[in-house]
Structures are given as C-alpha cells and as structure tokens.
Design brief:
One of its GO terms (molecular function) is chorismate mutase activity. Helices cover 75% and strands 0% of the residues. The protein is mainly alpha-helical. The longest helix has 32 residues.
Length: 100
C-alpha cells in the first residue's frame, strides 16, 4: 500500500501523482454523494419546473467562491468549476425527474 503524502511533503513526481490520483478517486466518490442528493431532489420536487432555481444556483456558487477565498485557492477557477458542476447537476436532476 502506497503512503499518500501531503502536497508540501512530496519530493518526487511519483508522490505527487499518487496524491493526485487518490484525490481524484475521493472527488469522484464525493460527486457520487452529490448526485445522490440530485436523485433525492428529483424525487421530492413536485414539478419539473422546480428543478432549475437560479437563486439557489447563485448561492451555491457564491458559497464555493467564499470557501475558495478562505482556503486561499483561486476563487475564479472554483466559481467556474462550480458553474459547470451545478449545470451538470441540474441536467442530471432533470433526467432523474423524467425517469420518475
């Protein structure tokens, strides 16, 4: 079993790549959890027209942006990623709603 080092502790590209690969697996697992909430939303919302909520979308992106600032990572990059994530989540939720 390979020990995963923190970024600052890495001294080789193999260590960096092992850390990135583990993080990617963790991120996909977190995305699976997020999409499970989209399944729940599609089940709970009474009408398909309730899926898109621009105010909620803005809130989610603003929260991600604020967390990026707090953690010292590029807030614009995070905002762009979350724009894509939220739009993908909406599309997923619409498809889940249609499958009901």
């Amino acid at each position: 079993m390979t020990t995963i080092l923190s970024g600052p502790d890495c001294t080789t590209m193999a260590e960096v790549r092992a850390g990135v690969d583990q993080l990617d697996r963790d991120l996909v697992a977190l995305l699976a959890r997020r999409f499970a909430y989209m399944d729940a939303a599609a089940r709970i919302k009474p009408e398909r027209g309730h899926v898109r909520d621009e105010a909620r979308k803005a809130q989610v992106i603003d929260q991600a942006r604020a967390e990026a600032v707090r953690l010292g990572v590029p807030e614009q990059v995070v905002a762009e990623l979350w724009e894509t994530l939220v739009e993908a989540s909406i599309a997923y939720e619409l498809a889940a709603f249609d499958r009901r």
